[in-house]
Design a protein that fits this description.
- There is one protein chain.
- By secondary structure, this protein is of the alpha/beta class.
- The chain has helices spanning about 5-35, 40-50, 115-125, 155-165, 180-195, 225-230, 255-265, 280-300, and strands spanning about 65-75, 80-85, 95-100, 135, 170-180, 200-205, 245-250, 270-275.
- Strands 1-2-4-3-5-6-7-8 form an 8-stranded mixed β-sheet, sandwiched between helices.
- The protein has 2 domains: about 5-35; about 65-300, Alpha/Beta hydrolase fold, catalytic domain (Rossmann fold).
Length: about 300
Amino acid sequence: MAAPSGSRRAVVTRRSLVVGAVGVAAVGALGAAVDLRAIPGRSTLYRVLGLDGHAGRIPDVRPVPTRSGSFTSRARRGRRVGWTVAAPTSDHALPVVVALHGYGDDHADLFGHRLGLDRFLAEHVDHGGAPFAIAAVDGGDRYWHRRADGDDPASMVLDEFLPLLARQGLDTGRLGFTGYSMGGYGALHFAGVLGRHRVRVVSALSPALWTTAGATARGAFDDPTDFAANTVTGRQRALDGIPVRIDCGTGDGFEPAVRTYVDGFTRRPAGGFEAGGHDMAFWRRLAPDHVAFLGQHLTSAT
């Protein structure tokens, strides 16, 4: 007679636990002999074996008010780009952080039920943190710099979006950048381009970085010359005087390149490396720390 469905589920669960325990033990033994970071597919291996740590959760609070719109970007060759600003109610001009999305996403993924920065910001303010605005805009999948075909999301952000934010009453003289994945690279890139006289703080969640042109993902840069002109690796001194926070998961395929980048600073950035993958689960876990870091340095005296 077949076992009842409940019993079958129990057997499968016990079997899964045994297999998982054996797998974790095997990985531990293997790690003593080789560098797990060098194993192809290690991101999947870490995830399957439960080595990415706990998933962060968006707080169950009322989000700060948001407003959204769109504009036709000359810098992006006539593309219509959407934007959203999340900001607490205030009688004063708030400083602003420009938040950059990752590859395959758009400005809306920074808020709501994806990354939830409008709720993390509300929780930050509710707990006494200094208020500020978070603004996001569509950059496509062009890695936040000018491309050979003329599409220029960098100029869109700096020459079109920042003036739009200023016209809305935000204090772009107290400016920060943040982002995840491709957007983490973009945040570091913009902060380096503008420097400490324009940027008060920058943070990056799992920035998409490579140490050589040959290692880059297809489409991230036009060619080796484009990579050499726009890589942030080797240009850490451009961030001198800017508070920097960088976090990356140890199960993230970008972790070796991010570690190389972090090691290249004269003064080590805040943040670090802990269990996690290249996903929203990790970024939500670190989001409260990044929001607090941004708020602290945006509003501190210079």
